[in-house]
Amino acid sequence: MNALDITLLLLAASVLGVVAFRMLQLPPMLGYLVVGILIGPFGLGLAQNSKTTEELAEFGVVFLMFSIGLEFSLSKLMSMRNTVFGLGLAQVVLTIAASIGFGLAASYWLPHYFHIGWEAAFALGGALAMSSTAIVSKMLTEKLELESPHGRKIISVLLFQDLAVVPLLILVPALASKSGDLIETLAWASGKAALILFLLLYLGQKIIRSWFSVVVKRRSQELFMLNLLLITLGAAWLTEHAGLSMALGAFVAGMLISETEYKHQVEEDIKPFRDVLLGLFFITIGMLLNLRLVSEHLGLVSVLLIGPVLLKFALIAGLARLFGGTTSVALRTGLGLAQAGEFGFVLLNQAGGLHMIDPLLVQLILASMVLSMLASPFILAKSDAIVMKLSANEWMMQSLALTQIASRSMSTKKHVIIAGFGRSGQSLARLLAEEKFDYHALDLDPDRIREAQAAGANVSYGDAGRRESLVAAGIKRAAALVVTYTDTQSALKILHLVQELNPSLPVIVRSHDDTDLNKLRDAGATEVVPELMEGSLMLASHALVQLGVPLRRVVHRVQAARDERYESLRGFFHGASDLADGPENMQIRLHTVFLTERAKAIGKTLNELELANLDVDVSAVRRGTNRLDQSREIILQEADVVVVRGTAEAVARAELRLLK
């Protein structure tokens, strides 16, 4: 098969696989893995696992690590250093030590099945110590748990694992050759690694911002995209040639860009490359699974699957508890990191290529690692239920959290439930409080909740995507529910629960743009507010006012745009009372007055006109194309434009004084 044949086959199989798994409400990454198993050399034999596909798949991990780097700043990474170099280091070292001990014991007690030296056991331990950055980070992001206590610990350990790959890739060949210059080799590689990381972190931080500003000033989306790819792949190339992993360089590049104001734009632009190439990576992993071999040695594969997964779970959960995590956090950390990882395949293939391990054993371990990655999304999806069963205290903690939510909302009715208490949620809460409306906010950031509660905000720790949290927050007594963050999958989950618990409840959902508008409305959203549109409307209205367009006309234009976009704002009938006594008449507005040749104000200063006595302010004075200093001693001339601010009645009186 030529390159085009392979590409079309992978695309067709991927589309069919992802569609099928989406219809079954299963993670799409499972669809990619199953596609790889079916079309791979050990399945239908339609595609071979070539070097080209493996290299393309590695780019998927590179772009994933870049995206993760965007979520971390240098200061944030430094604040996590105790977890990264404490918990992460302990996990990798103890996993390798346990593997060496198990390998030597198995070789002694079962010499007919296992016969490996400590060097090979070390290599296997390094492969076993790795966890799947691709699967775990994607699942944490989808579940909105990246910033949760266990999410932070998981990401910290994953970061150290990626760092640990570097010395492991150097140590394994040195152990295989049994050369005496191991310390010298490791020292030389560590020096190169330190130099490259210094150049990226120190010099890169100074260069990135200024270089991005140069590119952005060219106002070319194509150039911006090319520059982004250059920086991502360039950093990956640099670290790879220094003996580090490509993924580490991409992560550092993402961290550097996260310090700039271009972070969100970069995140959106890189997403298509990341998702497509990451899908290809999972297909190549699926191609490695030899189903015939699994069926022939099912018992041994089961032992190699269950044993390492349980060992890693127990080890990581114990370490997380030792490093200050609660029981539930420790258990969730262990569940999140129990599976095999992408770099584990690299280390295992390296050990196999150096003839340190029997080829049959390599294939069996490979099969068990693929199966563990297949099982990982299901384990993570059911992590709450598993933790409930394993931890007696978890029931109490969950019940206590729900009781706290219920106690805060018990006396309220016709209140607003706010899902997410970030900047948007806090702004909404302030406006509701000023208008004497009760609210109850749910959020998953413990630091934010602690500070907000101390300041008197009615916010509780709870996931709005869980039925129990919504019931405790009084969803059946609420007047409305507002989703204040832009995550479509989470919003759909909340909408599904609302339809089940209180179908008549109005739900307002925030979105980034109009992409998922119909999907959210079909799911039951009363209104979907795209932040890009609202931002553009406010930008346009301020610009028009500054250009001298009467505020009434600006308001009507914005209102017309909103009426066209938002269904709930349509159908308002205006009457005479709206103009005379309605709230619009009491609103502060800007009004422009053009001084004709007979205007009374010509030749006078603003002080002499005493406009302040009429309860208006002078916002601006324009003469031709110039905006004049608003000094009270300025003498007004013919054709000047005076912009006044006040209520409708006040600006009307000011216009009379200026003109007549």
Topology of this structure?
Layout: H1 3-23, H2 28-39, H3 51-70, H4 74-79, H5 81-109, H6 118-129, H7 133-142, H8 149-177, H9 182-217, H10 221-241, H11 246-258, H12 263-287, H13 291-296, H14 298-322, H15 327-337, H16 342-353, H17 359-381, H18 383-390, H19 392-409, E1 416-419, H20 423-434, E2 439-443, H21 446-454, E3 459-461, H22 467-472, E4 480-483, H23 488-501, E5 507-511, H24 517-522, E6 527-530, H25 531-546, H26 551-565, H27 576-580, E7 589-594, H28 606-609, E8 617-623, E9 626-628, E10 641-646, H29 648-659
Parallel strand pairs: 1-2, 1-4, 2-3, 4-5, 5-6
Antiparallel strand pairs: 7-10, 8-9, 8-10
* Beginning-to-end CA distance, first to last residue: 87 Å
Describe the sheet with the most strands: 6 strands, parallel
Instruction: State the domain count.
Output: 4
State the share of residues found in helices, binned by percent: 55-70%
CATH class of the largest domain: Mainly Alpha
| Poorly predicted segments | 567-586
CATH architecture tag of the largest domain = Up-down Bundle
- Which radius of gyration do the C-alpha atoms yield? 31 Å
What topology, given as strand order, has the largest sheet? 3-2-1-4-5-6
What is the count of helical runs? 29
Could you say which overall geometry the principal axes of the C-alpha atoms support?
A: elongated
Q: Pairing-aware structural class of the strands and helices? A: alpha/beta
Indicate the CATH topology of the largest domain: Na+/H+ antiporter like fold
Question: Mean pLDDT across all residues, rounded?
Answer: 78
